[in-house]
Task: inverse folding
């Protein structure tokens, strides 16, 4: 896997702070927020400094039984070329069904049929995309009925059959473990960490007895502890912070980046 | 479960998320409610961001109501507030095409996007996320 180092999700509201950080190895751009013509000038400046670009998509609906939207996939492939991205990622989920958009990433049942559908779509995506594809585990309050295996097994089979790599969202794992009552460290022990591309961390909160992955709150101690557990088990090519709302000041952002950076 | 059954499961689940009450066999009611509320919040975010841009068409009363609701962190009520929103949209000039989804005549929202967009015929106005 490409060594990425420390990264952050690039957002216009964080651009000034990100530009002031001199130890970033990569920034992740939201594919749905980047124009097809030109990168934001702040991102171009980062590229000129040697900062790598990862492209993150939330639109492919790779787990959907509906046919894959090839137009959307072509657009993503063009964007990967235009931005010079070293990796493209999307999620193990579905977003639309029967022609209707859910507006939310929804989990697939961990079943053989869902795995077949995902593999077919991921292989199609890999044929079209000019760079490696990484697949991210999502956070979800629910499990759809029909599952016949656990998530680590499902992911392991998915990556084996498609050649894709794993974008492990440690905070999603933390949230799911709390909401579904399982041990996240055992999850890590069973997960295909040899396929790790990079790692996401983001903040969340507890509300009404459930853990919400908000991307708008500070990082939690539980997520950082899981990152440490992950580092005991695997080499982590890259780790990054996601923040999508309630943007912090530079000092707070830098504090969170320091907290997730690989220890010297 | 066959592929067809999986397709049916996914389609019925997406439909259930928009239903009232929001229920789906095999999924605990509390979790469905939490997912539905989370979904509503996500859909409201672009609406909140668009509110200033739309206020010229929809009127300051709408914006005041909208900001007051969002300021409390309380979800809009689909049967009253969102219908008001939909009614407000009816006053948008005919040459303006909004990316709007309406389900079952009750809920109305702008399609969830990371970057809200108003699509005018022939050009797009992108609303910067603040």
Result:
């Amino acid at each position: 896997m490409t060594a990425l180092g420390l990264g952050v999700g690039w957002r216009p509201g964080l651009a000034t702070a990100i530009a002031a950080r001199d130890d970033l190895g990569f920034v992740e751009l939201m594919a749905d927020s980047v124009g097809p013509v030109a990168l934001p000038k702040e991102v171009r400046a980062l590229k000129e400094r040697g900062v790598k670009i990862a492209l993150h998509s939330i639109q492919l609906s790779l787990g959907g039984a509906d046919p894959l939207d090839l137009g959307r996939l072509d657009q993503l492939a063009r964007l990967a070329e235009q931005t010079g991205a070293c990796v493209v990622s999307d999620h193990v989920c579905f977003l639309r069904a029967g022609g209707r958009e859910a507006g939310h990433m929804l989990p697939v049942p961990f079943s053989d049929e869902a795995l077949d559908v995902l593999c077919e779509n991921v292989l199609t995506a890999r044929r079209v995309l000019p760079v490696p594809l990484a697949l991210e585990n999502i956070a979800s309050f629910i499990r759809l009925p029909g599952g016949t295996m656990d998530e680590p097994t499902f992911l392991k089979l998915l990556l084996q059959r498609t050649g894709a790599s794993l974008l492990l969202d440690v905070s999603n794992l933390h949230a799911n473990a709390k909401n579904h009552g399982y041990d996240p460290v055992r999850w890590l022990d069973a997960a295909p960490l040899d396929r790790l591309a990079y790692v996401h961390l983001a903040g969340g909160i507890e509300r009404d007895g459930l853990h919400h992955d908000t991307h708008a709150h500070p990082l939690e101690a539980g997520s950082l502890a899981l990152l440490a557990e992950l580092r005991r088990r695997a080499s982590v090519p890259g780790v990054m912070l996601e923040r999508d709302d309630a943007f912090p000041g530079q000092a707070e952002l830098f504090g969170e980046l320091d907290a997730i950076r690989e220890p010297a | 479960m066959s592929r067809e059954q999986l397709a049916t499961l996914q389609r019925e689940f997406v439909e259930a998320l928009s239903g009232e009450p929001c229920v789906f066999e095999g999924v605990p009611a509390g979790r469905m409610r939490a997912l539905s509320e989370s979904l509503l919040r996500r859909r409201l975010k672009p609406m909140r961001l668009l509110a200033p841009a739309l206020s010229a068409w929809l009127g300051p009363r709408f914006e005041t109501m909208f900001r007051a609701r969002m300021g409390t962190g309380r979800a809009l009520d689909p049967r009253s507030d969102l219908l008001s929103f939909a009614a407000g949209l009816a006053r948008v000039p005919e040459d303006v095409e909004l990316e709007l989804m309406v389900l079952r005549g009750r809920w109305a929202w702008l399609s969830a996007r990371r970057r809200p967009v108003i699509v005018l015929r022939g050009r797009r106005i992108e609303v910067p996320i603040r």
